[in-house]
Design brief:
By secondary structure, the protein is mostly helical. 60% of the residues lie in helices and 0% in strands. The protein has one domain. It has five helices and no strands.
Length: 80
């Protein structure tokens, strides 16, 4: 897959910087494939919460969207 999680992250699991990322993603088709893979990963992870008391996938996806900056920080990405 030309655009993938592996193209967006380093071997150490960190998000690549903008310059390196753009060098790995050559066109909008690659960018879409990377976004598609991330979407699938979010859906999969949300589905793993099934059975946890008082949870549903849509709730956790909304929470992730609202708190993505915290997620970036947890992953070591500093945003202004």
């Amino acid at each position: 897959m030309a655009g993938s999680w592996d193209h967006m992250t380093t071997d150490g699991g960190k998000l690549r910087n903008n310059e390196t990322f753009c060098g790995m993603i050559e066109n909008l088709g690659d960018a879409y494939e990377a976004a598609e893979e991330c979407f699938g990963m979010v859906q999969y992870l949300a589905a793993q919460l099934e059975g946890v008391s008082n949870t549903n996938q849509a709730y956790w996806i909304r929470q992730a969207k609202q708190h993505y900056l915290e997620g970036l920080e947890l992953g070591g990405v500093q945003k202004p």
